[in-house]
Amino acid sequence: MNKKALVLSIVVVALLQLSMVSAAGWHVQNTLNGTANYEKVSQNVESLNWAGYVASSNMSNPSPVVTSVAGSWIVQNVTGSGNKATYSSQWIGIGGFFSGDSSLIQTGTESDYNGGGSASYSAWWELLPAAETTITNMTVVPGNVMQAHIFIVPGTSALWNIYLNDTTNGESFHNQVTYSSSMLSAEWIEERPTVNGHLSTLADFGTAYFGQDFTGITGTGYATINGTTGPIASFSWESITMVTYSSILAQPGALSSDGSSFTVTYVASSHGSKKVK
Predict the structure, then answer these.
(1) Staple partner for 132: which of 15, 126, 187, 250, CB 3.0–4.6 Å?
(2) From CA 191, how far away is CA 65, in angstroms rounded?
(3) pLDDT value at residue 271
(4) Is residue 217 a part of any domain in this protein?
């Protein structure tokens, strides 16, 4: 599997008849690279493959000052029927959101329905444009609480720490990498990946839970931007709704009262009928 951050998609703009405001990277399985486009709606944007929240120094004119992102989530249980495979991923990352930003450093978990009544779960990390690396020493189980933290080593310009911990069973992963990040954005995301060159059908994950208010892990749903550490709502931010050309696939809920936590609700598969309003 691999992932690819954005390039502008003229086709999406033409089909949706939208003006391109910002674009994001996406989690790609198996073979191909992809792009995503967004339409800004108040403090919300719409994406073909992401749902969740993004924060930066300024959503209209971001500066390269994002040095840390911390998140937590409950591993979602995915369901399905028949033999059709469906896919989903939960992760945090830095970079990859704004138009022209091809960098993205991220870590998260995958929850896929394999068809025939079975599902599979895994953990991974990635530095675009390199392929995803599966974390083989972690056993991901639905309902487990994951904690993730990505941050630059103080005093350096390109040395990053990536941490992913399964706080339920005590398994943990750490890697220190050299990476040239845009440092423009922090993300907390539910995603449908690209499989074999095509956007997959989103797995039915029910409701996904992100942040300290749901996991009990203090300081998650937080970022450090321009030297200030705080929850999502303390920065310039936008929510992201996952859509097709005519349907809503996944909808983020409002931020919690402390600005750190939110849900993402599954609405429909990629063949759903709910219209974008």
Answers:
(1) 126
(2) 25
(3) 55
(4) yes
In whole angstroms, give the CA distance from residue 229 to residue 116.
Answer: 45
Residues 30, 51, 134, CA angle at the centre, nearest 5°? 35
The boundaries of the domain holding residue 93 are: 10-266
pLDDT at 176: 98
Residues in the chain: 277
CATH of residue 230's domain is 2.60.120.700
- Burial grade of 46 (CB within 10 A; 0-12, 13-18, 19 or more): buried
199, part of any domain: yes
Helix, coil or strand: residue 268: coil
Q: Which residues of the chain have pLDDT under 70?
A: 1-42, 270-277
Amino acid of residue 200? S
Burial of 3 (0-12, 13-18, 19+ CB in 10 A): buried
Give the whole-angstrom CA distance, residue 87 versus residue 201: 6
